[in-house]
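dumping the sequnces here before i forget
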Amino acid sequence: MTATIERGAATAPVRTPKSDPPAKKPGSKRTRGFLASSNGKKAVMAVTGAVMVTFLVLHMLGNLKIFLGRDSFNEYAHALRVLGAPLLPYRTVLTILEIILVVSVVLHMWAAISLARRARKARPVRYVAKKSQAGGYTTHIMRFGGVTILLYVVWHLLDLTFGVVNPKGFDSLPADRMMAGFEPSRWWVTLVYVVAVVMVGLHLRHGVWSAFQTLGWANRTRYKALKATAGLLSAALLVGFLAPPLAITFGVLK
Amino acid sequence: MNLTLKVWRQSGPTDSGRMVTYRVEDVSPDMSFLEMLDVLNERLTIEGDDPIAFDHDCREGICGMCGMVINGVAHGEQRATTTCQLHMRHFEDGAVITIEPWRAAPFPVVKDLVVDRSAFDRIIQAGGFVSVPAGSAPDAHSMPVRKEDADAAFDAATCIGCGACVAACPNGSASLFTAAKITHLSLLPQGQPERLSRAKAMVDQMDAEGFGGCTNTGECTAVCPKGIPLDTIAQMNSDYLKANAK
Amino acid sequence: MKYVEGAEIRDTKAPAGPIEERWEKRKFSAKLVNPANKRKLNVIVVGTGLAGGSAAATLGELGYNVKSFCYQDSPRRAHSIAAQGGINAAKNYRGDGDSIYRLFYDTVKGGDFRARESNVYRLAQVSVNIIDQAVAQGVPFAREYGGLLDTRSFGGAQVSRTFYARGQTGQQLLLGAYQALERQVAAGTVEMFTRHEMLDLIVADGRARGIIVRDMVTGEIERHVADAVVLATGGYGNVFFLSTNAKGCNTTAIWRAHERGAYFANPCYTQIHPTCIPVSGEYQSKLTLMSESLRNDGRVWVPLRKGDDRVPGDIPEDERDYYLERIYPAFGNLVPRDIASRAAKNVCDEGRGVGPGGLGVYLDFRDAINRLGRDAVEKKYGNLFEMYERITGENPYETPMRIYPAVHYTMGGLWVDYDLQSTIPGLFVIGEANFSDHGANRLGASALMQGLADGYFVLPTTIGDYLAAGPFGEVDEEAVAEAEIKVRSKIERLLSVNGTRTPDSFHRELGRLMWDYCGMERTEESLRKALERIPELRAEFWENVKVTGTAEELNQVLEKAGRVADFFDLAELMCLDALVRTESCGGHFRAESQDADGEALRDDENFAHVSAWEHSPEGVPVLHKEPLEYEYVKMTQRSYK
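..and the predicted 3d for all of it:
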């Protein structure tokens, strides 16, 4: 055997640790809050995710009303606003639900960002070569997917909730906004929507299962069932959300 | 076979480190990966060069001391195999092989491919045990254990503490290691009294060491030489949540 | 090599009287340490395997101030972890006629009447507590559907007394001890020093008072003093270079203690394990053991005809020689290790060996697969088959495994009395590092038993008797400085040679020499040759070894060189011991001493003793004999026919 040695230059970016990490002896218990722990953050992520998934399911069911006619859809939209009436003032329940939703989104993002920062700190020097072995591409696009979905949600609210970018504007019936938003000439809106919904589907395929895992419900016997549930749920949402806009764009719904 | 190795060289914790290329010729396919490195190191020593430092001991896949990231995969692409049990017959003649240490802030590099994994010991210190002084144990048959539980506990207990899970995790998380011990002990009746306090203490220690959080990517279990299943992490999460709910 | 014979040595600590009462008696007569004093007593434990790990944990639990050392990066890596088969205990859960007395009897007989009866009886007594302790710690032993522990018959035992955890019993028991140890580290009773290697023993005023260690990361030489030192540093099988030991296993700690005055007992007793994966080439760095449990269902054979190079499947039944079944019809494939190993060597010497270099025999599961079905075989041995395939690239379900004997365990070690104390007061030696319980041959599944018996139950009691007189005060500074200087100068010397050969190349050559001349079969001629060759090789080592780097860094070449240097000295003593013991017994087979059938022939008249060697700085070792008496088990010639 002969070994010839070629000295190469540094090929990896290197950050030297700034200073020794503080003494981490177990027992020196600085009590950490639940939310400060990585598992606490994961639980926040799972619970807020579950809230949003519940919302998505209801939202999708509502959307499908468009197939029963514009009136049916408008009545549904109206019913949402007068939930609890006449006991409660107009839009009370809906506002509460919206607040819960917004809080969920914020907490979900907060958990995601702090876990991502934690992860970056845990690997200051990157690998020169790194190959994934788990094969689940959906797991690797979670953070990217989350950001994409967020951007879309902003557009979606401007389009169909506030009507700012909708041809019909805010002072119109919800069903009209929907029909106008996805009319064949605005095919690109539909395209953006499709991309976003696919992203949601992918995000949930890992996310829903991940929530089961994080909340400790997964085990050997339930493993397959939970994975299947996550897959079915995201597939159902995908189909349910894509059906109305595609039907409108392709002129099935008029 | 002839190979080109690109090996991470780092003289000490404060050195910045770099990849260095070596040619190794006449490698036998029956050699183990570490034997191939032995041959290279013998050569380097004779030439007065500093041989590549790497950890290893039992060389039969059980002590957990060896471990390097080979072509981007912890312990190499051969599944369920430690680096010492990886054989050269799985490589092509003329291959270029990159060799790097486990990379994680809680596993600082000591030298070349040697890293400090004492964080794992501290996680065990936090609670990875059953408190039982020698001499006080009841008869072994006084507490029967369902075979299914004993087998599942065993599956988790086979962890060798090599750290490949951390090395492979995109988040640098030690969840699989920590969960394996928590699951092993929480499936057995002997582990019940300290079950929740153990989970809390060990997870908190894992965080304190600076490991990342788990995002259930499954990279850990894919490279684990003992195939520790991912559902151990669910068990850990469940125990941890219960501990916090108390 | 010259030696002189010194005075007889006796174990003065074992009480007299009925054997079943001796341990109780000793426990009662041993002085107790005042609980308030324990905190002030410092104990050093070197090694963190089953013996060292369990001892450090137990001593910490008792309240002593313990320092624990290991050369690995974590105490969990010690080589006990690799033990596969199981651990014996006289629980008699099966009701198959087992008892403490039977385990005692089997062990004394299996050791070929070269172990002390008192020690072995205690081992059998304590064995039952070990299982209880391990189960309470959460060691996941194999269980049956009723929830109770499963056992199996192992290594030639005719009762089912071996508890196991798949093929990873050592791992699970070690993790139990490791976890107990880490619990004490967290509690502050044990201070852990990983990546530290013991390089000398500090002896002051006739007592062991500490050790000199090298921090393997920084290279710093450190002094650690204490009231007692416990060595649990394992065996010295790596003197053969190729063995089933871990690469790091070495003799340095016990050898340097020997140089400081601890007697070395029976160094020639080496166990060669019959079922290991054969060597595949020159580069081979270690040998891998396949659990002996494989012999429960596998059949060992070689071709009947010399030089038959057909693939095994093409060799018809009547041209196969199932030699163990043929020679030993009563025990067949389950004969004790030493016998199975030598039989394999004999058929290979006849030219009937298989595989590269003709150094292998078949271990065939064809019949077991036909009888039990592939699934049943896979359940029992699946992980072992996988391991075999990973290493050799051959599938044992389809083609028979090839196996060959390899050095596995060393029964010899530092001489200790019933209290496990060496000839240096305050120096205790436990586990494989001592010589005490296995005689000339260790039975399968007995090493784990002995390591844990010593660490959890025996040492923590007996060390109290010594420590009750302590603390022993300040350590003489001169003794400490002298030990430190000795260590430093040895390191400097190794670094200064700057020759042309690596430490590994010397180690490989020494190992080859030992295997050829002091291996499975030893003759006066071979041993004399070895005793001539070793000093020459050692001289070359000190003139021509190449150690790169410096002493003040992580330097694996330097570590290796220091260990090889000690292996030379040990190898010499091993060969001398083997030369002096002209009988055959257990793992020590002298070709001159065999019966008409080629079996080991003991010479009880002249050799029913322990050979305890005292080091002399002048290079002329002194042999002290400890006579062995058998009151309970009648000495008979072992026969497994």
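Residues 3-111 of chain B form a domain with the Ubiquitin-like (UB roll) fold (CATH 3.10.20.30).
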